[in-house]
User: Fold Rrf2 family transcriptional regulator from Chryseobacterium oryzae.
Amino acid sequence: MFSKTCEYAIRALIYIAQKSKDGSRIGIKEIALGIDSPEYFIAKILQELSRKGFVQSAKGPTGGFFMDGSNLKLSIADIVREIDGDKLFSGCGLGLKECSESHPCPIHNEFKHIRQAIKTMLEESRIQLFVEDLDLKLTFLKK
Assistant:
């Protein structure tokens, strides 16, 4: 459903939010280990997300990534739109360019309900909620 880049971005942001809530800064090696991702790949993703304000970073010996309170309010939909664009929320289920209400593909009418349900779920899913579930050990980020 998500690109690999988007999957890593979501997992990394949730991980950073959980690990930095006490004011800590988290390094790339720890993030990569914590979410089971390639270090070079997650570094590139986080550099871009930092530039766009999804996560903060600091350089130096005590540097690393961290999140502030406003970032905890980000929805998973915000992250998906930034990384993968809006296709998940508006695209055709069969990948057709011409699909629309007036010119529907064979699965259009059923798929638009599924697409809307996914959009609603991801818009209501905030990073803070995932951090709370991780703290309670209700969910996990790594196999």
Q: What stands out?
A: Residues 75-125 form one domain. Helices lie at 4-19, 28-35, 39-51, 69-72, 76-84, 87-90, 108-124, 127-135. The beta strands are 56-58, 64-66.
